[in-house]
Amino acid sequence: MRVLVVLPLYGGSLPVGRYCAAALAELGHQVEVFEAPEFQASFHALRGLKVTADRLQYLENSYLQLVSQAVLAKVETFEPDLVLALAQAPLSLQALKRLRRDGVATAMWFVEDFRLFTYWQGFAPFYDFFAVIQKGEFFEQLRNIGVDNTVYLPLAAQPNIHKPLELSPVEQRRFGSDVSFMGAGYPNRRMAFRDLVRFDFKLWGTEWEGDPILAPFVQMAGARVTSEDCVRIYNASKVNINLHSSVQAQDLVTGGDFVNPRTFEVAACGGFQLVDRRGLMAELFETEGPQAELAVFDSMGELGARIDHFLAHPEERQAFAERGRARVLAEHTYAVRMRTLLEFIAARRPGWPKPRTAAPAADGLPPELAADIGALLERLGLPADAAFEDLVWAIRQQQGALGEMDAAVLFLDEWRKLYARKNGSVG
Amino acid sequence: MRQLVLQLARFGDLVQTRRLLLSLLAEPQSEVHLCLDASLAPLAALLYPTVTLHPVTAHGTALAKLAPQQQAAALLGANVPAFRQLSRLDFGRVYNLNFSPLNLRVASLFDPRTVRGHVWENGQERTGQWARLAMRWSSMRRIGLNIEDFWAWHHPFPLAPEKVNPPAQGRGGGLGVVLAGRESRRSLPPKELAALVCALLDTRLVRDDAPLTLLGSAAEAKAAHQFLRELPPRRARQAKNLCGGTDWAGLAASVGGLDLLLTPDTGTMHLAAALGVPVLATFLSSAWCSETGPYGLGHRVLQAQMECLPCLESQPCEQGVACLRPFGDARLTRYLATGDARHLPEGLLDLDSALDVVGVVFTARAGEDAAAAKRARFRQFLARHLGAGGAWNAEPVREFAERLYAERDWMAPDPESSAGRIFGGSIDF
């Protein structure tokens, strides 16, 4: 199946979009990615114009419509069976209407908190399928505005990224500590982590400035941490604290519903974490009993004691980490999520995806050429029976100068467009 | 954190910045500064004694009469030192409230990442998402948000509305009457005003022998004189004309001692509300109480309601100011005396101030508020947008989501988006 993944221009759903694309490719689908972040520099360039505020707004809106048109152009060329948009994707309502009219299936994975990112009310009805990380009330709200094709799709991990690492002693020293937290300095975390300064503690991530108590523990001067370094931190820390964010500093452990990506990622890395309990956690991980996969806490009062306990019992940390990782690899990878999403769509959309009837690319060719085509298909990671159009698409994904076979196939494709199809021949 | 509010507008606007300023003052270890026009500094010192003031010369009625060189000398002489001081203070957050060229030029003193509202970034003017949203709903003025709440909600967690102004309670000083306002069509002419004052006194809504204090600037002296001529001699003898006769402290003292203030939409009205003095406001023409009604509990608004309202003060009225008629209708006296809604003149609403999770709202005591249902849905939409809580158990409000949310809102990052205003730059679960 062909899937066009539309990334957002910015934000937390951006890495999730890339993981989705990788997972879909792993599942054997042909994936194109609409690289919206590449359009962000131009969007920002508009702010250098020094024009009136209303003119700037007009230009910004127009530019986003143009980006949306670029997605449509990509759809026309790539002819995907599904356009998968991540939260904040630059798909205008007009573009979504157009895709619906043209019969192109669209889905959004809304990897946001619906109570905070309230704009879903404006665009959700224009997607054919809407995947969310929350349940209950959100489902009801979506139903109320006419969105029926809603599927619960919790976050996940990407095993080729989030994996156990052999760290060098230098890396272990740099990224390791008894206790660590990797994330943004929101009010509940700032307040909560004041109790952790008695440990060998490292704070990673942004927005920790202005807190004299925590300042000595902030790493890299509060700079943004790359995904690769996140994985090193998760691997190197004895206890990864995972406290879900909250904007208020009264109840530090909020008991909210959805489970954050960090939970899956630390587990997939084989790291040990102490995570605050969430409403939807129990159906994703075992949190009680001897086979518990996650070590959880319900209040800040118990966190310190639990850290002391687990620092003193490395074997218990190891056991939790192993069970957690096994559960993630079995049930909580992006590949699993993508399979769930595609199955959900297939169940709700009769005749989807439309079968592509084209004959295999090597059909009817002399054995020598057929072998060359077969080798090309293999090199490009396509199945041996891939259609000619799929082969052309895969060749076009390559960077730099092409080989003679690649160029010849592209040439043949164009020649057919010019002559063969015009004369009624099969392409 | 050290924070600055840029409020260069007028008397009423300064008072209506109260919820935002009190929200900032309520933060732990807060240090709040206010940049305002120098003429309002004495009033601001009374209203916000713990706020550090930065007066600048912005209002220019007198300056405009000077020669260009004199204007430049006066403005630069006053403002350069003030701007120098502002730029040295390293504010953690700056709230720039007004979409005005003057405000934006002052905002140029600060790191644009710290500025909320209207931002100046490398010579480019930019409006945050909250203000953009407000520009979109400005076409629906009958349901609009009170400006005090709009300004306050630039803050992620403003002070609860009930903590802004004390509940209104009479102070024994009789009836205050505000003459005219800056926008003349919004005010009752002397004849209608005199009839309403007599009605209030005759029907004992205010003590019959209560002092009658006329309030206004020197520019209202003539209106005050006409008003007194319209009053029966007995009532005129009760009156004390303070128009043009008070400084800010005197005005605050006079207003603060009243039982009731009868006023059109004026700065004095907002001052009374801030002091906890009951207001009876007359709103007509371009004034609509959803937008600028008196803040807090215990206030009352007589709101004209016609198809053409609220209009634009800057455009001529082609209806002969028909919205004025109900205020001159004899039935209004009867209504005020009996409280019987059947006597309320057509085209008039009698509304009480109330509070909800978003802020102040006005509910009909008598008359049918045709926009009430829509306004309630709008406020539900806003409560959700602002994370004001408790509003997700009801049905979503698709009509406003589709009308007010623009694609720009969710496609591009904005520190004033529904999530950004709470979480800041990056959202990390």
Outline of this structure?
Chain A is 43% helix and 12% strand. Chain A is α/β, with parallel strands linked by helices and 427 residues long. In chain A, strands 2-1-3-4-5-6 form a six-stranded parallel beta sheet, with helices on both faces. A five-stranded parallel beta sheet of chain A has the order 8-7-9-10-11, with helices on both faces.
Q: What structural class do helix, strand and pairing data of chain A support?
A: alpha/beta
Overall structural domain count of chain A? 3
CATH H-level superfamily of the largest domain in chain A: Glycogen Phosphorylase B
Q: Tell me the domain tally of chain B.
A: 3
Order of helices and strands of chain A: EHEHHEHEHEHEHEHEHEHEEHHHHHH
Please give the radius of gyration of chain A in angstroms.
Answer: 25 Å
Average residue-wise pLDDT of chain B = 92
CATH topology of the largest domain in chain B: Rossmann fold
Assign the CATH superfamily of the largest domain in chain B: Glycogen Phosphorylase B
**Shape label of chain B:** globular
In what range is the share of β-strand residues of chain B?
A: 15-25%
Which structural category do the helix and sheet elements of chain B fall into? alpha/beta
How many strand elements of chain B? 14
Number of helices of chain B: 19
Q: Please describe the biggest sheet of chain B, giving its number of strands, its sense, and whether it closes into a barrel.
A: 8 strands, mixed
Indicate the CATH topology of the largest domain in chain A.
Answer: Rossmann fold
State the end-to-end CA separation of chain A: 20 Å
Bin the helical content of chain A.
40-55%
CATH architecture of the largest domain in chain A: 3-Layer(aba) Sandwich
Q: Give the low-pLDDT segments of chain B.
A: none
Tell me the greatest interface. Answer: A-B, 56 and 45 residues
